[in-house]
Amino acid sequence: MSTIHGIRTAHGSACDGETRSYRFRYYAPSDSSYERCIGLTWCSSCREYSGAMVHVPSDEYLPDVLADLPRPERERLARSEVKLLDYLDRLARRGAWPPR
């Protein structure tokens, strides 16, 4: 069960903001763990997020939202889930993500 939007005793009620999710590959295609991917789910309103290792078949295409960025920027975002989620939120506000 996801902890996103769970009822918190300190807050008294759950957030009703939209949740988003993103999956990306962590291993190279030649690696035996290629199907083990990172899955992130978050709410931009309450700033809660959850991450887990998820299975994605090797033949399933996962869009790489960082592909067009310069290498230093890609590496900076890849090092921090929070920065990655902030970047994805900015893309979503502009209507550039998720891909339609």
Structural commentary:
By secondary structure, this protein is an alpha+beta fold. The protein has one domain (19-94). It has 2 helices and 3 strands. β2 (36-43) and β3 form a beta hairpin. The two termini are 28 Å apart. The relative contact order is 0.17.
Features:
100 residues, alpha+beta, 2 helices, globular
Q: So what's the oligomer here?
A: single chain
Q: What's the overall geometry?
A: globular
The helix fraction, in percent, is 10-25%
How many extended strands? Answer: 3
Strands, helices and their partners?
Elements: E1 19-25, E2 36-43, E3 49-55, H1 71-78, H2 81-94
Antiparallel strand pairs: 1-2, 2-3
What does this entry show, briefly?
By secondary structure, the protein is an alpha+beta fold. The protein has one domain. It has two helices and three strands, in the order E-E-E-H-H.
